[in-house]
Design goal:
It contains 3 helices and 2 strands. By secondary structure, the chain is an alpha+beta fold. The protein has a two-stranded antiparallel sheet. Helix 1 crosses helix 2.
Length: 93
């Protein structure tokens, strides 16, 4: 949770919209981070925003990105990326 709180400061500084969900079940603690691209896929383009490392260190201090990478290797067991699109023609609303 400490790492996510530090990431939140970065998301706010960069203007990124992220929702954080926690799994409520037995087993290991799980979090799902969901990024919403309000301006479309152009937000994924190189140069649209400052690099994450630069933003992260600007709000968490110089050298903090190295600690972030260390935490990732220690505490994150699995990571997946998916790109989802809303299908209004199949949805109930």
């Amino acid at each position: 949770m400490t790492m996510i709180k530090k990431m939140k400061k970065s998301w706010i500084a960069a203007g990124v919209t992220v929702a954080v969900y926690s799994a409520n079940s037995s087993g290991k603690t799980q979090f799902t981070l969901v990024t919403r691209y309000k301006q479309g896929l152009k937000e994924k383009a190189a140069g649209f925003r400052k690099p994450f490392k630069e933003v992260y260190e600007s709000v968490n201090g110089e050298g903090s990105y190295a600690q972030y990478l260390k935490y990732l290797s220690e505490f994150v067991d699995e990571r997946r990326n998916e790109l989802l699109f809303m299908r209004n023609d199949f949805s109930s609303k």
